[in-house]
Amino acid sequence: MKPTDNEKRSGIARREPRLQQVSELSMTYEGVDSVIPVRAPDLSLHGMFVNTSTQFPEGAIVNLRFRLTQSNFEVQTRGEVRYCLPGIGIGVEFVGLGAEASQAIEKEVSAFSQVRHPRRKRAPGKARKSL
Fold this sequence. Notes:
The protein has 131 residues and is α+β, with helices and mostly antiparallel strands. It is built from 2 helices and 7 strands.
């Protein structure tokens, strides 16, 4: 999988497929009632990159709510800020994500990944070369 523009800018390698299609995303800083303006995220099984101009220190806890677009499943979880790219956004790792939400995200990311990167069929009689 080729790196995205965010990956190139941040120098962070991705260990999992990413999904950029969620809706109704909202984020609050834990302990503060105001909603932080955010734009479409980059979602993986263990966290997300959220585009926001608001800066957060590493280790800050945020509350996230979003809806998966294919399944319409609503995810509500806490997240810990792992890194901040000032003026661009934050990388958040999910904290205490429930099993049902985790399975819904995994299913959605997997389905999206298969659509984006379908497996090629081998011609009959052609064996895969081993290294």
